[in-house]
Design brief:
The protein has 87 residues and is of the alpha+beta class. It is built from one helix and five strands; from the N terminus they run ββββαβ. A five-stranded antiparallel β-sheet has the order 4-3-2-1-5, with helices on one face.
């Protein structure tokens, strides 16, 4: 999904309850911005080569027992500021 995304779009990974998230924003062909919001809040930039390894670590930390993870595409990072419904 990230390969087909146009900058500055990307993918948002949400826990099933939508209370924790990891946003991956494509800045250009090889640079990605990661926004972690859950147990830890941090923002950092990565190259495409390091993305898979770091994403694996983040998923284990943010979604430790989750069997269901929601995946949402977005066209612009401003869409990340909206409230997600929590049931």
């Amino acid at each position: 999904m990230l390969k087909n995304a146009e900058p500055p779009g990307g993918v948002l990974l949400l826990s099933y309850k939508r209370n924790r998230s990891i946003a991956i924003i494509k800045k250009d062909a090889i640079l990605f911005e990661i926004r972690e919001d859950g147990y830890e809040q941090q923002v950092f930039d990565l190259s495409g080569a390091r993305l898979a390894r770091e994403l694996k670590t983040l998923i284990k930390r943010e979604f430790p027992r989750s069997r269901k993870v929601r995946v949402v595409r977005f066209a612009h990072p401003e869409e990340l500021d909206r409230e997600w419904k929590v049931y």
